[in-house]
Write a structure and sequence with these properties.
By secondary structure, this protein is mainly alpha-helical. Belongs to the sigma-70 factor family. ECF subfamily.
């Protein structure tokens, strides 16, 4: 590997390995498995020159998406499933909740990035099922303020999700 390539690979590692590793550990709780996912993610980025030419934020978002897909693929792989034979079949089938768990984690992280004022309005509206009037009464603020915070809070939430590679 020429010195220039080694320097570029080192810069890629320095810029992105830490955040990607923390993200994977947050998703899986497996510190040693996170090393493998980070290595594969960096390798895929290295093999995709157009990604390296993008700005660092786009590269990081792409890498978060790749890492998430690697984690999901690993969780669904036959290697991870431990089949146990029994005399009787299970009473009912259980749906795989992997995607919904990852989605909940991503939404939680994106909500944490909102300001408190925006987060409390968005959470009350979408998780609490409250109307604009009910939120305004509960928070003792005008309805127009609730509408404004809801609009800008959802906008910031969408941007936070885009940074994590969830939406376009």
């Amino acid at each position: 590997m020429p010195s220039d390539d080694a320097d570029r690979l080192g810069a890629l590692y320095d810029a992105h390995a830490g955040p990607i590793w923390r993200y994977v550990v947050h998703l899986t709780g497996d510190r040693s498995g996170a090393d493998d996912v980070v290595q594969e993610t960096l390798l895929r980025a290295w093999r995709t020159p157009r990604i390296l030419a993008d700005d660092p934020e786009t590269t990081r978002s792409w890498m978060y998406t790749v890492a998430r897909h690697l984690v999901v693929d690993d969780a669904r792989s036959a290697r991870r499933r431990r089949e146990v034979t029994t005399d009787e079949p299970p009473e009912s089938a259980v749906r795989d909740a992997t995607d919904s768990i990852f989605d909940a984690i991503l939404i939680e992280e994106a909500l944490a990035g909102l300001s408190l004022a925006h987060r409390e309005v968005v959470v009350r509206a979408y998780y609490g099922g409250l109307t604009v009037a009910e939120i305004a009464e509960e928070l003792t603020i005008p309805e127009g303020t609730v509408k404004s915070r809801l609009h800008y809070g959802l906008r910031a939430l969408r941007l936070g999700l885009q940074e994590r590679g969830v939406t376009r």
